[in-house]
Design a protein that fits this description.
The chain has 152 residues and is an all-alpha fold. 57% of the residues lie in helices and 0% in strands. The protein folds into 2 domains: 72 residues, no CATH class; 40 residues. Helix 2 crosses helix 3.
Amino acid sequence: MDEPPVTDPKMLSVRPLPGESKAGTLARYGCMPTVLAGFTIADYSNIRLNELTVDALIAELRKQCDAASRNDLARADEVLVAQAHTLDAIFNQLAQRAATESLASAIRRPELHLETESLASATPQTALPLGTVSSATETTSLARIPATISAA
């Protein structure tokens, strides 16, 4: 019982195992590292998904994972070295920007030093009227399950 190919490039084609429920199939695919990585690459890269499908990304990731399982770690080495250099460049740029901006800010606004000292000695009760402590909290979700994998 082959289903027609998925036409939406952001949708995942799934194939149930014999006797497997729809929920079981979706859970199995939703836990596959290559599926999760494929959606992440699609979401965060500049790849135009009208020309490339999530299924194609997942198939390529599967090939690369299979190579690593055979101890062919050339791709993994390449990724780690490239990411190390990229992260080093980002870190240094941000560190230099932070140092420059905080020095420039301190030079432009010497009164900040005194203001910071008084706030550091304030208690939350005395700081609240000044607006320095907010009682509101924000929650940000750090993880996201691809919307195309759902039992709905």
